[in-house]
Structure formats: C-alpha cells, structure tokens
Specification:
This protein is α/β, with parallel strands linked by helices. The chain has nine helices and 16 strands. The radius of gyration is 18 Å and the shape is globular.
C-alpha cells in the first residue's frame, strides 16, 4: 500500500523536566507505519523550519529511514507545543502554547499533490488549512483518515465528514450518543477514542467497542492517539475494512506509546543511533531491535516498550 501522512511535525516541550521531544501527527503516524510493516511505501508531507529543532527532526527522520523528498524546509521556526503530564500519565496541553511556525502557511507542491494522488491511504488533521483541497482532489478509491483531535478543540465535524472515510475524535464515554448520531446522519465511519475507557467505532447503524489494553504503568499518553489512528487506518484497509480487527490493532499499538515520556516510537538519540526496544518478558527487561520487536508485537506480545527521540 501507498501510505501518506500530511500534517505537522513539531517539538513537544515538557516544562516539568525541561526536555523536548519530537512529536506531531505526521511524524508519529509515519513512525507507527514503519514499525508495523517494512513492506509498505510510506511518505510524510510536512514543513519544518531551519532552526535547531528542525535540524534535529530532519536528522531523526534520516536515521529512521524516512523518505525526505516531500519534507519541506523553510526559513523560520519549526512548530512547537508545550505539554504537561500528571501522575496518571495523562497528557495536557498548555492553552495558548501551540506555535505553528513555518507549518502555518505550508501548501503542498505539485509533486506533493502527485504523490497524494497515488496514495491508498491519506491521513491528515481537521485543522490542516489544506483540508478542503485534499478532499476536493481525493479519488473515490482512496481512503481519507481525518483526525478531529480532542472535542475541546470545537472543530465543526459535519462539513468535513462528507469527504472523509474515517473520522477520529477524542472524547469521553458521555459523548457516545452524540457521535453515534453524527455517524448515522453522515453515513461515515466515526471512531471515538476515550483513553483508558477504550474506543468505539460507529458505522452504518452498528457499534463496535474495544477495551484499552492494560499496561504495567502508564508514563505518558502523548502520541497514543496518533499511534492508534495510524494502526487502525492501516489494518482497516489491510483487513478488507474489518472494523473489529482495526480497533484491536489500534489499541494494541497505542498501548506501546504509554511507556515513555514522548510521542515517537523510537529510542533516545543521545548516545546510541541504533533503535533499541525494551521488552518486558516474565518480569525481566530485555533489549531487542526494531524488527524483533515488531515481529513479537504482530504475534500478540504487547508488553514491548518503545524508546524515544530526545531533541
């Protein structure tokens, strides 16, 4: 399959520890696809600045084997955000801390649009200012996955649902009836993610529920939603649109993102450029490489903690 993610790559800063990590919907989803399968064609379309954060993100992409031919670099600041994490591992954004930087006015080039035209799966965010053009150019045979983020963002979903195939929204169990009705009215697949309360998919009058995968200790939920969406959309298409399998795989892969303080499913780059995974087996910690970790995960071993990229 040809997989394209088109949204932001950013620097997530944690004032509690004064650490900054690579994040953003596009970066996290591309990493997830790379971890799931080595067989797919994966492209990331985004714009980063030529500042220190942008240089670090570019270097991380190169080490991860990303194709950078559709990553634009512009004069200015890379998008950045400020996050806090409570003792339960729940992530909270600091109001007003998001800075779009050079991504605010980024527009895909004609070569980018040609790439998008060839994709089987296109993933983007509802607040992407190119969203209506993406929907306008989308072919009937393509699957468009849209992240409507948290309900607190108050994004009007109705106009965008018409041109979508999968709509993700993060909310609470009390919002279930609202999004169920929205799915029924639009006829579209709407997936409600509820953190520790699991996830629900609504489609054509049916309702599918998936429990959250229990983990030993939640460190940070940042990036879980991006990981869930990437895995769900991938397995949804790969399985011939099997919603139950897509939900299960989304939950499985999202659980991996809770083991560490960051978004990315890769390791610290301070000392070792190799990707290292920490495998929790029989109560003992073992190290393994990305291929072994992905194989174990695909075979049902879900206690595999990913490392991180620190800027």
């Amino acid at each position: 399959m040809n997989l394209v993610t088109l949204s932001a790559c950013c620097a997530d800063h944690y004032p509690q520890t004064n650490e900054t990590y690579i994040g953003g919907n596009a970066f996290n989803q591309a990493l997830t696809w790379h971890a799931i399968s080595k067989e797919e064609t994966i492209h990331l379309i985004c714009c980063i600045g030529n500042d220190k954060n942008g240089q670090s993100i570019k270097a991380a992409m190169e080490r991860s084997g990303f194709d950078l031919s559709h990553v634009s670099i512009a004069d200015g600041m890379t998008a950045k955000n400020q996050l806090t994490v409570d003792k339960e591992g729940e992530r909270f954004g600091t109001e007003g801390s998001w800075i779009s930087g050079v991504s605010e006015f980024f527009a895909p080039t004609e070569k980018d649009w040609e790439l998008i035209h060839q994709a089987d799966l296109i993933s983007t965010c509802a607040n992407n200012h190119n969203i209506f053009e993406i929907q306008k150019r989308k072919k009937e045979t393509q699957c468009l996955s849209i992240d409507f983020m948290d309900k607190e963002n108050h994004i009007d979903m109705a106009p965008l649902l018409v041109g979508s195939d999968i709509a993700f929204i993060s909310a609470t169990p009390t919002d279930k009836s609202f999004y169920k009705e929205m799915a029924e009215q639009s006829g579209k697949l709407v997936v409600l993610t509820m953190g520790r309360h699991g996830s629900i998919a609504f489609y054509q009058g049916e309702e599918f529920f998936q429990d959250a995968i229990k983990v030993r200790k939640v460190i940070d939920t940042t990036g879980c939603g991006d990981t869930f969406q990437a895995a769900f959309a991938y397995y949804y298409l790969k399985s011939g649109k099997n919603i139950r399998e897509a939900l299960e795989q989304g939950a499985n892969w999202a659980s991996l993102a809770t083991f560490h303080h960051c978004d990315a499913l890769v390791n610290s780059i301070d000392d070792d450029p190799r990707i290292v995974f920490l495998l929790l087996r029989n109560g003992a910690e073992e190290k393994c490489n990305i291929d072994d970790a992905a194989k174990l995960h695909r075979n049902g071993h879900h206690q595999c903690a990913m490392g991180i990229f620190r800027l």
